[in-house]
Structure formats: C-alpha cells, structure tokens
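Chapter summary example.
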Amino acid sequence: MICPNCGQETDPGKLCTSCGASLPEEESRVVDQNTADVQMQASVTAGNAESEQPVNAAQNTGEVHREDVQDHTSELASTQENTQGQYQEPAKPNEFVETLKRESSHFGHFFWDMLKGPDEAKKINHKSMTPAIITMVIFSVLIALGSYLIANQIASIWSGVSFVDSFLIPFIQFIILFAVVIALVFGGAKMAAQSLSFTDVIAKVGAYTVPFLVLTIVGSLLTLIGLSVASVLVILGLLGPIIIVPTLVLLEQPANGFDRIYVLLGIYIVSLLISGFLVQSILSTFLGGITDSIMGGFGF
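The structure predicted for these 300 residues follows.
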C-alpha cells in the first residue's frame, strides 16, 4: 500500500515502514481482510492437495490389487489347463468282455437250474435262447471230439486220420441235426396250434438237452475207464435230443389243431431218417479216412 504521509510503498499495518506515520485504519482492515482471504484460500488449496493424495493412493492401491487378482486368475487358469491336460478319463470297460461275462453268468445259472430240475424247462422262453444255443454247441463239440478220439485210436496203427474228417465234419453235421430238430418241433407246434415262437422252441430244446448232455459225458467217461455197459448211457444221451426232447416240448401245451400223437410220429420219422443219413455220412467219412490211412501205411 502507499503511505499518505511520505508517498512511499509500505507493508500493510498500522504504521508506515518508511516514515513511521500512522496508516489509515480502513485500508489496514481491507488489507487485513485481503490477507485473511489469501491465507484462507491458501489453506483450502493445501487441504485439497492433501485430500487428493489419499484418493490417488487408494486408486493406485486398487489398481495394484486388480493387477494381483488378474495375475492370480491367470495362474489358476493355467493350473486348471495343466490339470486337465494331465487328467485322463478312466478307460471304458470293453463291451465285448462285459457281454461275455454276462452271458457266461447267465449260462451258468441256466445250466445249473436245468440240471437240478429238468422240469423247470417248461418255464423257459426266448430270454434263455443264448444259453440254450451254447448248450447245443457244447453237445456237438463233445460228439465231434468223441468221434475224433475214436478215429485216432483205431487209425493210430497206421498214420492217423484227418482232423477235418474226424472232428469238423461231425461237428457241423450234429449242429445241422439240432437245427432240423428245432425246425420240426416248431412246425409241429404250429400244426398243433400251440403258442410257441421259434425262439421259444430254440430255448426249450436247449434246456431239455442239458440232462442228456450230462448223461453223454458221464457215459463217455465210464466207457473210457473200461466200463462197456456205460455205452448205453451214451446211446441214450444221443437219442434224447432227437426223440425225447421234441416229445417233452410238444406235451407242454394242449393241442388245438392236429393231434399231438400224429405230430410226434411225423417228427420221429423225419428226425430218425435225417439222423440215419448224417450217421451214415459220418461213418462213410470216418471209414474213408481210415482206409486212406491204411493204404498210405502200405505205400499205396
């Protein structure tokens, strides 16, 4: 401000710093007020600056925390990818093996139930077709094996017999015989107007064959140890599927069509004729193999 006494510039206050004269009070008050305003504005500015520092610090902290979270998320994702890469799904069970286990168990129960109570075959239906087929195949294999052993025993003096002639052909022929019996029984059931499906007939023929299969096995074993009378058991076991089994199947239900006696007689005749033809064919092949072995032994 300007001192009114000396005209020199002086600091605001009550006295002039140059001449010492008293300064006007109003100007001093205005100056004081301006000074207070300046100080207040300076303090407000300083306060705003101080308040901005925590906000900036909080923003910086939030950004750092966000970066930490993103880094942690990236690490988790990377860990999950590595874990998924290392994890291997458990191997699925082999369907063929599982089916084989299931059918083997089914066959075991089927065979044991029919052996304990053959009359239970009346309750058998198409659901037991697979174990029934297995039973007939086993029966055919045993017959073919017996034929092979007998042929080798007779022809062992010379040079043996062919596996095809003594085993494979009898096996196929006995399978054909079972197929013929099943077809005849199914045809007889239709002629007698019985409610049996083709798969039901297959299952029942196989079920009724179980006791005759065991009878054939027992008779064969007893024959091997020298008990010749046991051959009767073998013959009975062979005739069972041809004569007795069709009778048991057709007698389960009442006949509403042709009389079952005539139907059974027709089945017996056809079965025996086909069986005779197959047996003759087996013997012809068997004897032919032995003759070839004998001729080969003599150098012909």
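To summarize the output: Helices lie at 25-86, 95-116, 129-155, 163-191, 198-224, 231-250, 260-297.
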